[in-house]
Amino acid sequence: MADAIKAGELTITPSYRYRDLDSYLLNKCYWEENLSELLKQYELEKFSDITNVCRQIKERLNHSFDKVNTNIQTGKNRHVSFNKEEEIILTTPKVEKPDPLRVSELLKPCRYTSILQVLYDINGATKFTDSFSHYSVKHAKSNPTIQTLFAGIIALGCNIGAAKVANTSKGINLNTLNHTLTWHFTLENANAANDCIVNLIHHLPLPNLFIKEKNLLHTSSDGQKKSVSADSLNANYSFKYYGHGQGVSIYTFIDERCALLYSTVISSSEREAAYVIDGLLHNEVIKSDIHSTDTHGFSEIIFALYYLFGVSFAPRIARLKKQVLYTITPKFYLQNKKYRVKPGKQINTALIKKYLPTILRLVGSIKAKKTTASQVLKRLSSYAIENPIYKALREFGRMIKTLFISTYIDDLELRQKIQKQLNKVELSNRFSNAIFFANNQEFTQSIKADQEVAVACKRLMQNAIVLWNYLTLSEKIAGCKTEAEKSSLASIIENGSILTWEHINMHGEYDFLLHAETNDHHFDMKVIRQLDIRQ
User: Fold this and answer.
1) CA distance linking residue 285 with residue 257, whole number of Å
2) What angle do CA 231, 237, 239 make, to 5 degrees?
3) Which listed residue, 2, 249, 383, 510, has the most CB atoms within 10 A of its CB?
4) Where does the pLDDT of residue 399 fall: very low under 50, low under 70, confident under 90, or very high at 90 and above?
């Protein structure tokens, strides 16, 4: 039975993971009856004529092979060399990393700012707490206080826990806090609150300093391993990352302006590539034009889907020399040109043409949010025998991958841009650790849904700090008396990093005056010393 499920011969109708593939997609009759309208609605019209698409890609592939080899032969590309086996060796000069301390110094001239004050200030600008509505429509008007919502965000986002926050805070009742966490802290609410903040960042003028190419937004994503202290079906064992414990991976998306667009929690045994599309489609306001990942987020299927979604996929691929390049033109034609960068295999265009209608319906279904890309990809890859749609998508992706690699080899500026964007997501992981500090940075939640809410609250705090930094610096620039002062301050910000949190106090404040006034408790040392303990 297990083998039949893996092979796709047996499906489980009530499940979400093991249904028939067609049930994840838009209704076939509906799709065929409204084909022209749906292709236009989901911006897929240009792919309807696959013969023309393949012809265009064929021309681009031939041109790219010619260009990259010409630049190598003429010495124009000085960062490419070959070993004895004629395998490519690519070097990329390191990019200068921004210094977050330069911006941090501008933000803490007098004293540290508490994370609670940051939440108050950002809520005043965005009203993100309005997103935390009651789970039940009947109780829509029974909203908790802002203070209780902030306590819930900090309890989950900092991993402190509701009990400790309530017992170490003034004005917070544990029962009320637990009730709020149960009925108001859903993943949809937490994501909506994040979107409120991200959308304001999107409309501010100052964040545009970090967009290097006009009308071209670069995003990136990366995973971060975290241990889980509770028994969890979403976690798995890995001695490399967790020792004798188990853990999960937090997968996070960030753009050039350091707005954290999306996050999810996955089993660390899963391939990150399956989730790369999910973050792309999450936010309706922020539209990525080029997206980068490391090798864990790359696959030939992802190249195909990103191309069909109209977004450039630009990963950093480790062991580039091991990647096979492909051609639509017969292999011998290009190999006779004695290229050093040359294709190893030929694309099966007949397979692509045969299954293109289903591929377009699959992409339309993801865009319509009938299903998620991660679920469809996991279903396609779960078959013991390769699914023909999966194979067709992979063939399509091989064409796009080859186009990218040839450009990647030839374009030093592109490689450096990718590295710079990936540096931002790595810095955001350090930022994540600074906020998610309690309980040894281990998840205490066992259920995947609860883990995702906690991560969304952590991301909310990160986005709040990023927006607070932008608003504070915007006020400083507005207060400059001369254009020269404005230009100088803008230059410091542009060459620094807005992902800075040195000026934020994450750990609360200590009231020494209160303890000095009420410190009437002392240990009775006489009784303690005379204690008689018999074994």
Assistant:
1) 14
2) 135
3) 249
4) very high
When pLDDT is averaged across residues 487-495 and rounded to a whole number, the result is 90
pLDDT digits (tens, 9 = 90+) for 242-271: 888 899 999 999 999 999 999 999 988 888
| DSSP three-state, residue 225 | strand
- How far apart (Å, rounded) are the C-alpha atoms in residues 492 and 102? 7
In Å, how far are 6, 11, 210, 311 from 3, measured between CA atoms? 5, 11, 51, 37
Query: What's the pTM value of the predicted model, to 2 decimals?
Result: 0.91
Which of 125-139, 296-310, 503-517 comes out lowest in average pLDDT?
A: 503-517
Q: Which residues contact 50 (CB under 8 A, 6 or more apart)?
A: 352, 353, 356
Q: Give dist(CA 388, CA 391) in Å, integer.
A: 5
Q: Are 157 and 164 in contact (CB under 8 A)?
A: no
Euclidean distance between CA atoms 303 and 402, whole angstroms: 10
Give the lowest-confidence range in 89-93, 179-183, 419-423, 463-467.
89-93
Q: Within a 10 A sphere around the Cβ of 280, how many other Cβ atoms?
A: 23
Which token pair is 190? 């937490």
Residue 305 has a CB neighbour count (10 Å cut-off) of 25
Between the two ends of the chain, the Cα-to-Cα distance in Å is 60
pLDDT tens profile 35-83: 999 999 999 999 989 899 999 999 999 999 999 999 999 989 999 988 8
- Specify whether the CB–CB gap between 494 and 209 falls below 8 A: yes
Residue 490: phi and psi, rounded to 5, are -65, -35
Could you tell me if 415 and 422 are in contact, meaning their C-beta atoms sit under 8 angstroms apart? no
- Measured between alpha carbons, how far is residue 265 from residues 446, 455, 533 in Å? 12, 8, 50
- Distance (Å) of CA 323 to CA 295, 307, 315: 12, 19, 13
Closest CA to 90 of 402, 340, 412, 313: 412
Phi, psi of 82 (to 5 degrees): -135, 145
Return the pLDDT at 465. 97
Beta 345-346 vs 504-505: how paired, if at all? unpaired
Q: Which residue has the tokens 């987020």?
A: 297
What Rg, from alpha-carbon coordinates, does the chain have? 27
C-alpha span between 382 and 245 (Å, rounded): 27
Look up residue 68 and give its amino acid: V
Tokens of 95: 């990019």
